[in-house]
Specification:
The strands form six sheets. Strands 4-8-1-10-13-2-14 form a seven-stranded mixed β-sheet, with helices on both faces. A four-stranded antiparallel β-sheet has the order 16-17-18-19, covered by helices on one side. A two-stranded parallel sheet has the order 3-15. By secondary structure, the chain is α/β, with parallel strands linked by helices. The protein has 15 helices and 19 strands. The termini are far apart. Bound molecules: calcium ion (2 copies). The site of one calcium ion has 6 residues, from loops.
């Protein structure tokens, strides 16, 4: 049997020389609502993410990477279509799904493009937005998403009664799953199940190159975690983020009308006044750190499985979070805003030929994932993608780069260059921050006829009106 197998192998190698080597595999690790609170980005001194930090040291970490929209639906629609939110009109969680627009009904998302070129496309967990009306029969063939069983509601902490603003240690024997408890106490959590399935996939043999998605749900709210993750963050050792009192006083958009009426703030969810008056700031930080730590554990398990697999030498890993999260900066909690804390994301690329341990500070967008994958897979773009391939930076992180990052939420936009953040709201009001002198974005310079303003306004207009 062994000799026959050997002969068959030789014959295969003769007729299909080096076929497996020609097309690399891709492992996409999508994390939900993780801001720059990872060790390698230095967003908060108390966070602990040894596995994400290790991956960053094995590849390139983009330290100035931004989502194209600061909520799940529009960020992920942009990533997988390769189109800007301002182009598709998918700019929030409430602007529908792009397939509902006849113009994009038959558009090829990245997995479809990979599949058309001979890749198998499989995803576990939240790679697309959970409510995105994916039609598995036509839209994402072979993409398997997690299906969860009967659930029991829980409510541990927050006063609103909305589970999306809840946090806490889950009672012993219970398991977190999309913010609820499964009726089966033996069931694994959502993310535990995603990691297990991804690891199983990497342990199998595959005859064709794969484009594999692994989408973790934490640290999305509710911030429920197991006790072992909470125990890593004693509350007395947690410091609140550096904030400036009255930071919001120089924000014209927020002075124009009552804060609660603004779409930028996801009304009715987290409430800064309640959190500070009730002394809950550190509790929520602790819960966020614990949720990050649980996902970091899973990243470590998946990466260990890849390293031990037969695909370790021929697989690109792209790790990103779909947007950032505020924890009290500018009295804001959560996503759906256009400041650094809300748009900046962990973004790491690792794989064959990519130098290890490089930090790249050029402004980049998640929109670049689609063209970068095609670039490394040697596949033509199926339609005109609006992001640019990161290959020049992956080959030389210091190369010339004249592409600012644009983040859109509703009809508001933020532009990030290497030095500046420029925000323009729908009513025409503006914010301008100099990251060379003001990394916390405390001083809005837009009131002072700043010489950079005309330049940034023109850059924003140029991108928005690009044909
Ligand atoms: Ca998200
Ligand atoms: Ca301020």
């Amino acid at each position: 049997m062994k000799i026959r197998g050997l002969i068959a192998g030789v014959l295969l190698a003769l007729f299909f020389p080096a076929q497996a080597e020609q097309k690399p595999n891709f492992l996409i690790i999508a994390i939900d609502d993780l801001n720059d609170y990872v060790g390698c980005l230095g967003g908060h001194p108390d966070t602990k993410t040894p596995n994400i930090d290790k991956l960053a040291n094995q590849g390139i970490l983009f330290t100035n990477a931004h989502c194209n929209s600061p909520v799940c639906n529009s960020s992920r629609a942009s990533i997988w279509t390769g189109l800007r939110p301002s182009t598709t009109g998918i700019t929030t969680n409430h602007t529908g799904y792009f397939r509902e627009n006849p113009e994009y009904k038959n558009l090829h998302c990245l997995p479809q493009t990979m599949q058309a070129s001979g890749y198998s496309t499989t995803a576990f967990g939240k790679v697309y937005h959970l409510g995105a009306k994916i039609d598995a029969s036509t839209d994402w063939q072979q993409l398997r998403t997690y299906r969860y069983g009967p659930l029991l509601k829980t409510h541990l902490n927050f006063h609103t009664g909305d589970r999306l603003t809840d946090w806490g240690v889950l009672p012993s024997g219970d398991h977190p799953r999309i913010g609820m408890l499964p009726s089966d106490p033996e069931a694994p959590s959502f993310d535990e199940d995603i990691a297990r399935r991804t690891i199983e996939f990497l342990g199998d043999s595959h005859n064709v190159p794969f484009f594999l998605g692994c989408g973790f749900f934490r640290p999305h709210t509710p911030l429920y975690s197991r006790k072992k993750h909470y125990d890593r963050f004693p509350i007395e050792e947690i410091s609140i983020p550096e904030v400036q009192e009255d930071d919001i006083e120089d924000l014209p958009y927020f002075k124009a009308k009552p804060r609660r009426e603004q779409d930028i703030e996801a009304p009715g969810l987290w409430n800064h006044q309640w959190i500070t008056e009730n002394g809950k700031w550190k509790d929520i930080l602790q819960a966020y750190f614990a949720a990050i730590a649980s996902t970091d554990d899973k990243v470590g398990e998946v990466m260990a499985a890849l390293q031990q697999s037969e695909f370790s030498e021929n697989t690109y890993v792209i790790l990103f979070s779909d947007h950032g999260w505020n924890l009290g900066e500018k009295e804001h909690w959560g996503k759906a805003a256009l400041w650094e804390q809300t748009t900046r994301v962990p973004f790491i690329i690792y794989g064959p030929g990519i130098p290890a341990g490089i930090r790249c500070s050029k402004p980049v967008e998640l929109l670049s994932i689609y063209p970068t994958v095609l670039d490394y897979a040697g596949i033509e773009q199926p339609h005109s993608l609006e992001g640019v391939s990161l290959r020049p930076l992956l080959e030389d992180p210091e190369s010339e780069w004249d592409h600012p990052a644009l983040t859109t939420f509703s009809d508001h936009h933020a532009l990030r260059t290497e030095r500046w953040r420029y925000i323009r709201y729908v009513d025409g009001s503006e914010e301008l921050y100099d990251h060379d002198t003001d990394p916390n974005e405390w001083s809005n310079l837009s009131q002072e006829n700043h010489p950079e303003l005309p330049v940034l306004r023109r850059q924003l207009e140029e991108i928005l009106t690009r044909p």
